[in-house]
Every structure is written in structure tokens, then in C-alpha cells.
Amino acid sequence: MRWSERYTKTDMVYLASTGWWANLGTVVISLCSLLLYIVFANFLPKETYGMYQYLLSLAAIVSAFTLTGMNSAVARSVAQGFDGALKEAVGVQLRWGLLPFLGALAASAYYFINGNLLLSGGLLVIGIIVPINAAFNMYAAFLNGKQDFKRGFFYGMGWNLPYYGALILTALLSDAVLMLLLANLLSQAIALCFFYYKTLKIYKPSEATDPTTVPYGKHLSVMNLLNAIAAQMDTVMAFQFLGPIDLARYSFATAIPERFGSFFKFIQTAALPRFSQKTQEQVRGAFGHRIWWAVLATTVGAAVYAALAPFVFKLLFPAYVEVIPYTQLYSLIIIASLSGLFVTALTAGKNIRELYIFNIASPLLQLGLQFAGVVLFGLLGLIVGKILSNFLTFGLAIVLLLVQKEERPIPKG
Q: pTM for the complete prediction?
């Protein structure tokens, strides 16, 4: 690693040590996810799987209204010694969870009146469980603030392994969509509650709180809202315009490239503290040669996946071999995943205006291009629209980093 630093001009030992636990977790979860996809591909009808994916997207949309930015606010406060932020934020999340619950309940009643019992029942389950999961998942933010990444890894495995096990077992025994949804959300709820109380028992956090934690968490949640909803709209559009079977195809075409992209996210985690210690001019200057190494790595990853995709699908997902050209094309998304590194630089510099521009423009680009693509060209258009929107937001992140000139204070309230 020290030898490679002559070429990358980056502290590779620090990068590897920081990313070790995160990437180990990504590897384990990716293997579990692969096994789950094999079971889904070979044991579930495409229509059933498509309906299940649609309900998961609805769950993610409901989750977008559960103060998603509170985790970052808690991690920040805990890192500064305000351990009481954990209990405070969980209480706020549980109270705020009434809002998404009522929204899901209203949607459930609408579908019930119109005779769609599947979506009605699914939204009722989502409305009850999703706010609970969002609240008790706060233990992970607390561990991040304590920089206890090792414990965070083992706790993550402690609820991910039963989660995947429950889903695989359910898929083998039943093709009922609501049973799959229950297995998904309920297994998470039980595990998250357990590890939340285990974290309290081990750390015994003090009551010290920072009065800015909750307002800052709400501020970040508003900033994230549009992006969180837009991230699910490709699935919603696939279901509404193409139907559950094509949604199942779309899910399999995009799943593995998306997972590949997640391997590079640890770089953002490692970069944030280092960027925070530099001036913005130094941060901008550091990108020149390093970004080309990152582009090279992601391009190689995309090319390897595109070459292996035909063999992978014929061996593991024979029911979905028709999506091989789509998933090869979608491998380009791995390169665009680097946009997060530039957003991290903006976050480190507290560039609130630029972050708002990115978090508003990015989802609007996604929605516009994906909508035009799916309406005009169907499944292929949806995939091309998503690729184009991701590369445009990649370019936008670069431009915003280059044009910003000074750090700006975080707005109050």
C-alpha cells in the first residue's frame, strides 16, 4: 500500500484501515443478497417479485418522511460528547413517526375502498413498522459517532443475517407478497430494537445533549427528502407504466451493478474527516490525479461485470437471461457512483447552498429523464434515463465543488 502511494498520492493505509469494517460488511451482505436473489429468481413468479419490489419502494417513500437526517445529526453530536442525543433523537423519531403512519394509513384506506386488498394490507404493515425501524436504527449513528466501527459491523451482521435468513425461508415456503413484506420489516424491527437496547446497556450514555441536534437533524431531513423519494421513483414508474413483470426484470438488471457501486462508498466515509482538516483550495487541488485513479478503478469494475454478466445470469438467474443486455449497459452506473466523493467534499466545507442546489437538481434530473425514457422507450428508456441522470449529477457535483469559494455557516433552526 505504501508503494502504491507514489502513484495515487493518497494515504492508502489510512483508506484501507478506515474502509476495512465497512467493506467487510458490504462483502458479507452482498453474498447474502446474491443468495437471496438466486432464491427469488428460481422460486418466485416474476409478478410476485415485482409486486414485492413495488411495496418495498412504497416503504422507502414512507421512510423518507421519518427524519432521515437525524442519524447524521446524532453521529455528529455523539462525536462531540453529547451522548444523550441518542435517546433524545429516538423519542423525537417515534413522535414524528405518527406523520408517515397517518399518510400510509390514508393510502391503505384508499386502496381498501377501491378493492385492492394487497396494496391496502401492505401499506398498513409499512405504516406501522417503518417508523419504528427508523427510530431504533439510531443506535448505528451512535456507534459511528463513537467511531466504534468494529461493534457496528458485528451488530450489523447480527441483524442482517437473520433478516436475509427470514426472507430466504419465507420465499422457499410461500410466494405470498404480504408474507415476504412481513418477513422483511418485522425481522428488522425485532433486531433493531434488540441492538438499540444492547447499545444502551453497554455504553450507558449520559444525559448530555446539544440543543442544536434535533433542529440540525430536521434541516438535513428536509434536504434529503426529495432525493429519498426520487430514488424510488424508477421502481414506481416501472410498475405503473410497464407492470410488475417488467419491474422484476428491471430490478434484476440493476441490482448487481448497484451493489458493485456500494463498494466505493467507504471512500466517502474515509475522506470526510481528511477533507474537514483542509482548506477548500487544498481539497480541490487534491482531486486532480486521485479522481483519475478512482475513475480507472470503477471503469475496470464496470467492464469486468459487463463481461461476466452473461455467465452469471445463465448460471444463477436463468429466468431472467433476457435482461443481460440491460444489466451490461447499466454497469456504467458504477462509474457515476463517484459523484458521492464530490458531495462529501462539499459537506466537509459546509457549503449549504451548493448542497441544496445538488439535492434539488439531482432528483429533478432523475425524475425528468427517467419519466421521458420509460414513456417513450419502455424498460430500455428507463435504464438509459437513469444512467444519463446519474452522469449529469456527477458532472453537477464536480462543477459545484469547483465554483464554490468559501465556507458558509449552517443555517439555524
A: 0.84
